[in-house]
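Bug #77: duplicate submission created two jobs. Keeping one. Sequence:
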Amino acid sequence: MSSDIAASDDENETRSKGTGGCLKALGCGCAGLILLCVLGTWLANRWMPFLGRNFEFAEHYHLAEDRTSHGDAFFFGQDVVLDGVLDGDLSMMGEKLEVNGTIEGDVVFLGARLRNIGTINGDLRFTGERCRIEGTVTGDVDFTGEELIIAPGGLVQGNLEMLGDTFTNEGTVEGSINGATTQ
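Kept job's structure:
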């Protein structure tokens, strides 16, 4: 009789472990789904400027020093050099962006390298390899990439949010600096 009770206890213990494992798996699945929703919302908000734009596909684009372009611009190509004035937001996916002139709006860049010698009168969102700020950014900088350099004379008037490998600050950040580097 005692062996029947022991077998029954073992069977009940196995069932409760199975139920607990199922609840644990369900909990992990729910946590994963919540994490996926949060990550998806963050990515959608971060890259929303790319939606609803007129796309310009060109290998190279140059805005001359004596020129002004009005309205928001989206470029998809190898490289863009802005020596003039862009009166609007700039969204770019490409290899290289060089700002020598003025952008009167926000900049969203997804690519390899950005160099700002001029002025960005707005926020800068960068995802790529290397971002070098030698000029002025009047808004916030959101950096995700390998290397962020604020060179001597470089000025960020807003806050700096960053996640990257290396950060060199020889310029000025007037707002707060938040984030982490891996080196």
